[in-house]
Design a protein that fits this description.
The chain is of the alpha/beta class. It is 30% helix and 29% strand. Helix 1 packs parallel to helix 13 and helix 6 packs across helix 13. The longest helix has 16 residues. 49% of the residues are buried. The protein binds flavin-adenine dinucleotide. The site of flavin-adenine dinucleotide has 44 residues, from helix 1, strand 2, strand 13, strand 16 and strand 17.
Length: 415
């Protein structure tokens, strides 16, 4: 391959562009709003190697309806969106059983397990290394009983070889004095990492790509140009860009792009939010998942970011106040003495295929059309490896992975 257009400059697209460039390929990186303007900007920054357990665990089907009506639960639905959600929802919920969870964990493990090393390899020599630090990933529970209710997920992590240390309230207080009596039990998973500013990290990687001869184009993708059953160009709002191959790395927006090829991907946006507190008076030592609230508190450059929750309302609806109010209320209970100078809010879109496994590979509909999207809650972590794997596929190299697990054609895709 000589010329590749990568569509989408989030972590997946930028990683793909850099790895292709390192292999001598000419790459154009296209984004409608510029690098790190999508979900890769505002995530919790955790390099979450052990996050192989999807949202769809056994018991969710019983709990979800109750959660939707309880303001103290981190699940939200815009009811007017329900008819549009319906084709996807039963397919998604069909994975709430041990067999499917194990299948999903087996697929996620190879792209997440070494994510700290994968990000170090990606960022080496780019200037973005400075945003990466090794860390534990802490799951903070109200009590040991609360932890025990999550035992299914911990068993899955153990089966995949992940290790952690458990702390009762007293020993956790010594580990991280930032938290008070609301945390009565914690599990600290080792050999993880964090990115201290995900947006700046991806922008720095993209700037390195450009400074090394890559081209970044800010324009909206419009269509694929297919000739003799192979892609030969893509069109944007402004121009036509010739290519031998293209990569769709547009995260939660990818479904719309693939419609142009007559494909219907069962994917939804799992909307999530963050609130950042500048110059906080208390900072957690490590990225910490508040298990009852399903949000993560991560120390970032000059600020504390709290990111998480799940809302179903599609890609177009404006931010909803309720999840943000939930987060602020929860924080007041967790850290009543915390104060800060300024706060900022953000809404993002996790790309969630119905089976929670990213789509990585070539589409059979036209030669040279590759995809890399659908990393749901773990795309920052898995983005570095995914980009490397895509560069190997495009250059005809071995990936060392069983690519069948990520095949886009595992779904029935006809429109
Ligand atoms: C609240 C929250 C917390 C999270 N925390 C973590 C975490 O701690 N760790 C982790 O690993 N993951 C986390 N994630 C998930 C992670 O952020 C995503 O999985 C990941 O960022 C997806 O990256 P991407 O490159 O696929 O997509 P994106 O970053 O969304 O990039 C897609 C790009 O495509 C562009 N685009 C879209 N349509 C077009 C078009 N038509 N033409 C041109 N360009 C287009 C967009 O502008 C965008 O820049 C979190 C997500 C959320 C919402």
């Amino acid at each position: 391959m000589k010329n590749v257009v990568v569509i989408g400059a989030g972590i997946v697209g930028v990683s793909t562009a850099i790895w292709l460039q390192r292999k001598g390929v000419d790459v154009v990186l296209l984004d409608k709003k510029g690098p790190a303007s999508g979900t890769s900007y505002g995530n919790a920054g955790v390099l979450a190697a052990a996050s192989v357990v999807p949202v769809t665990v056994p018991g969710l089907i019983g709990k979800a309806p109750v959660m939707l009506f309880d303001k103290r639960q981190p699940l939200f639905l815009n009811w007017t969106y329900l008819p549009r959600l319906l084709p996807w929802l039963p397919r998604y919920l069909a994975h709430c059983n041990p067999k499917q969870v194990n299948r999903i964990a087996t697929a996620l493990a190879p792209i997440l397990r070494d994510c700290l090393a994968d990000h170090r390899a990606l960022s080496k020599g780019t200037g973005a290394e400075k945003y990466i630090s090794p860390a534990d990933y802490v799951y903070a529970y109200k009590s040991k009983d609360h932890f025990d209710k999550d035992i299914f997920a911990w068993d899955v992590r153990q089966q995949h070889g992940f290790e952690w240390t458990e702390h009762d309230a007293e020993s956790y207080r010594r580990y991280d004095p930032a938290f008070g009596k609301e945390v009565g039990y914690a599990a600290c998973v080792h050999n993880h990492g964090r990115i201290s500013d995900p947006g700046e990290y991806v922008k720095t990687l993209a700037a390195h790509f450009e400074n090394s001869g890559g081209q970044i184009v800010q324009a909206e993708f419009q269509d694929f140009v297919i000739r003799d059953k192979a892609v030969c160009a893509i069109t944007t709002t402004d121009s036509t860009i010739d290519c031998d191959a293209t990569v769709v790395a547009t995260g939660a927006w990818s479904k719309a792009l693939l419609r142009k090829l007559g494909l219907n991907i069962p994917m939804e946006s799992e909307r999530g939010y963050h609130i950042e507190l500048y110059e906080p008076t208390v900072m957690p030592a490590m990225p910490t998942m508040i298990a009852a609230g399903k949000f993560v508190m991560t120390p970032m450059e000059g600020r504390l970011r709290m990111a998480g929750m799940v809302e179903f309302a599609g890609l177009e609806a404006k931010a909803n106040k309720q999840p943000l109010e939930f987060l602020r209320r929860y924080l007041g209970e967790l850290m009543p003495d915390l104060s800060w100078t300024e706060s900022r809010e953000w809404l993002g879109h996790r790309p969630a295929p119905s089976d929670s496994v990213p789509l990585i590979g070539q589409l059979p509909v036209a030669r040279g059309v590759f995809v890399g999207f659908g990393h749901q809650h773990v795309g920052l972590s898995g983005g570095a490896k995914t980009g490397e794997v895509l560069s190997q596929l495009i250059c005809g190299e071995e990936t060392g992975l069983n690519m069948q697990m990520y095949s886009p054609m595992r779904f029935r895709l006809a429109l």
